[in-house]
Amino acid sequence: MTKTRRTYTDEFKREAVQLLETSGKSARQLERDLGIGKTCLSRWKRELEVKGQQAFPGQGRVTPEQERIRELERENEILRQERDILKKSGHLLATKQMRFQFIGDHRNEFPVARMHKVLDISRSGYYAWRKRPVSAREMANQELYKKIEAVYNESHETYGSPRVYHQLKKQGVACSQNRVARLMRLRGLRAKQTRRYKTTTKRNKSHPAAPNLLKRDFVAERPNQKWLTDITYIPTQEGWLYLAAVLDLYSRRIVGWAMLDRMTGDLTMGALKMAIRQRQPDLDLIHHSDQGSQYTDGLYQALLKDYGIQVSMNGVGSWYDNAPMESFFGSLKSEWVNHHVYRTRGEARTDIFYYIEAFYNRRRLHSSLDYLSPEAYEQLYHQQQSVA
User: Is-contact 254 360, C-beta < 8 A?
Assistant: First the structure.
């Protein structure tokens, strides 16, 4: 099987460079996260600098005002650590033994002295606890918990015990799901909860609506057989940021997306064009959406017709007709957006770009995909086709 060369849109490149500048991660780490080639990020960054599309601040001399800002940042960091210690340990404060265990488990995450202060534990008491003999079972649980916590943190706290268990199983860790659930419950590790999002599109009664070809049949036999699409909104301190996304029903992969500060036809067209460029679909593809004016618009419908894509639409007010798309937006909000306060739309764009391209598509396990990520599920399909 010939490997298809992956292409990247200008928007993808700009967001990747912005992520490099703001995330604190190295170029190599982000290249691995995003699944792009070595040196891509540094090359894209140089290109943007030469073209003047992005300005990046230099180091310069530190002024007294800047030094004061740094001091305030250090103070804020101490307050943040104290808040996070209390947040993570709130369910564990019943006994000293549980607080000792928390300090031992998190000594690489928080300064030990700060945990002593916040949890009201003496230094001598903690180190006396560390010296006592540990049973074989307790030691095994501690080692297993470290692996559980690593998977949980890698998922950005989005995995419950079933996904954590399946990820550990892939890593060759021998344990039961009940044991994983018990240890997570004892340590207070819980998946972020999903809730329904509000519909954002509005119907234009003068635009004709297409029939519902999908009819809630959310099973696809191969990639590029059924696409779902919709719009959601992200709150920022500058105002709303609107996200349009296109989801491949076979793998639940987001194959196209666009973000703008207004909910216009350019938003949905941008997401669709990205999906078409990246996937090059066959003529029997079904495109399913609601009856919002952005999707019934003549230009949008003409683009679908140009590529021979069949059009399918929800019934009026039938949110469940597009349930997998709603599920994605629910995960985005509950696992990611609801845990951030975005000062600017640009900050939100960068963060959502990372969620889609580095986490959701490439790493997030789906129970409906036999606990594989969308990318891994598609790779398995192509491997099976190559030997068929």
Answer: yes
